[in-house]
Specification:
The chain is an alpha/beta fold and 112 residues long. It is built from 2 helices and 6 strands.
């Protein structure tokens, strides 16, 4: 039950959103037991974001998961940074990735 939310100050076309979504669907497998089958992706383009006092292209990515296992996060962070660099030309050193695990996750009218 992962959710990846990408917030960036870069404009993104619908086609480019699809490319990013597909790439994140493959990347999520870096986390044990996670797959695109349960992945939800949010993409927020054209946000007002400043990094190091500048509004040059940057991104804040939040990865939320059911459970708190940190295994695979180094690999996933590298892949997310590569995806955003390739698809949006955001330098890897201008991307933050944060991880949040939770013991409670609701779906389909109930909780896991």
């Amino acid at each position: 039950m992962p959710f990846i939310n990408v917030k960036t100050n870069v404009p993104i076309s619908r086609d480019k959103c699809e490319d990013i979504k597909s790439a994140l669907g493959k990347a999520i497998t870096a986390l044990p037991g996670k797959s695109e089958q349960w992945l939800m992706v949010g993409i927020e383009p054209d946000q007002v974001l400043y990094f190091q006092g500048q509004d040059d292209p940057c991104a804040m990515v939040q990865v939320q998961t059911y459970g708190t296992n940190a295994q695979g996060t180094d690999t996933l962070t590298a892949q997310i940074c590569e995806i955003l660099n390739k698809e949006l030309s955001i330098p890897q050193n201008r991307t933050y990735v944060s991880y949040f695990g939770t013991a409670n996750w609701g779906w389909n009218g109930g909780n896991f």
